[in-house]
Amino acid sequence: MKIRYNSKALMDLCLIGIGLVVIITSLKWPFKTALFPIVIGTPVFLMAIADLLLNLFGREKMVEKQAAVDFKLSEDVDQTLATHRTLLAFAWIIGFFLMILFFGFHLAVPLYVLFYLKIQGRERWRISLPLMLSAWVFFYGLFVWLLDTPFQEGWIFKGLRAIGIIG
Amino acid sequence: MINLQFQPFLYMLIGSAIGFWVGILPGIGGGTALALMMPFIYKMTPQEALPFLLGMHSVVATTGDITSVLFGIPGEPTTVATIVDGFPMSKKGEAGRALGAVLMSSLIGALFGAVFLAFSIPIVRPLVLAFGSPEMFMVIILGLTCISTLSGQGKRGLLLGMMSGGFGLICSLVGQDRQAGILRFTIGQLYLWNGLPIIPVVIGLFAIPEIIDLAVRGTAIAGDVSFGNLGKGVKEGIKDTFHHFWLTLRCSFIGSLIGIMPGLGGAVAQWVSYAHAAQSAKTMEERAGFGKGDVRGVLGPGAANNSKEGAGLIPTVAFGIPGSTGMAILMGAFFLLGLVPGPDMLTKHLTLTYSMVWTIALSNIIIVAVCLLFINHLANLTTVRGNLLIPFILMLCFIGAYTTNNHIGDLIVLLVFGGIGYLMVRFGWPRPPFILGFILGSLAETYLYTSTTRYGADWLYRPKVIILFFIIVAFVLYPFIRGKRLLREHEEPGEDQI
Asked: Is 0.90 topped by the overall pTM?
């Protein structure tokens, strides 16, 4: 029988691993803690194995025709370009997270909006600057001033405070 | 009528205005807004405070649908199902139509819920009391099966749906176990003791893949549709609601029924109604259109997540059993105002109880009218270049996630589930069963544990449990039987089943 390796099988393998971890870990717990994890983990583990077998050995037509009633990624962009843009988009998202981590929300929000508009969007200054300002006003006005949300300070400021450079 | 007196009406308007923005902003839920507004009601009379709070709470789901449709970001956890077909409609340049449909169905749902509340208080008491923990557990499994069955296409659709739902249930295990206090899968992090927070999970799972796709396409959400044309679909959307009026009413009814059940609420109602709407497809081609921008996929959840509001008040007001977090906070407000939920609300304070019906109806009519006035401007947002929108949408996502616990862990959860959501979309795993399993996991565990400790294995033989079991089996088998029947009708052997 011909085995068809495909990326969908990786998802199944992950779920098999997760199901296995849930079952094995649950065996150490008392009955009342372990009941639900075992009741859930076992069928998930078995279903993932069944799906993996279907992926590897099932008819190609059947595997191809599976689809979710859900949002679908655009298919009208060239595959190489799509991969490049996807990685870039993930990088911008992680970049925003790192900016928040290092600078805190107060500084990260306007800086991120400005950087994204100027570097990624290649927008003009007369568009980028007002949008940056409006993002900051929205953030500060609603979440800081009105709702008094406690936003954590960035690591850089915490570090500078710790060594006494800022008060 | 209390609501048409000046002071209560004014407070209702203020509450509705706050609810309008709370609904639109991701991360600030109706429950949070109610909690934030509690200090303001100390000096109010019950006739002023209840219209204020309920006016705010009852419109949140209505406006929460707007961001779901326009940007694929759920304004509320109860408006996630609207994304599945609403956002693809926006991408096709039908944002106006989707908004018209969702707002009108929301209004009909809200009015239905209000009427349901008014007429059903004496009838539902035996129903609610007849459902013990075994039946509630089976109702949850029914909801999960229902959405798993209908969220996948092809022979393996059900399997993928069930796996996705099971993965959601597994994710709900994270945190301190309620029964014995044992920490499960917390990887040594104090942050995870309370479990994975729902808002970052929902935003990550649903918004991040859409943002990435927007960046990949490099266009506006609505593609190349010209500016100014989108609002024209609004009338069409409103017409759609009346064209599928029975579907809207049926989904409203489903929302109301689920709204009565304590603990289930809008998160379940929206998905079960979505599943029902998908089930209403008559042909395989129609069925395949769901998830790609079928207006019925917008009407169902829109109607249900509003109709459950009125129905959710029934157990709260009549029996003192809050059906959701929002209702629990609202019940706290009752006590603050010197009102005790129970028989008194149906006798001594009956006028006040009926004023709640009017509040739900009036506030929704006003908010929908306001939304329809500005709908052109809202819909045109989808024609703004993606590069201009992405930083703002991401900002809303990150702030929305962060405000859950004000902890950096919220952002990590957002990123992790953003990645998971992207992979699920890429590999054709349906996300709706995951989110339903995740939301209902802890509740299902409590019901299963209570049933097992109280009845042993005997709970499996309870008549209502057996009936629910057969309904579940019917749901599992129905698509196969229907698919075979459709194949016979079309005489197209070799085609795939629904």
From this structure: no
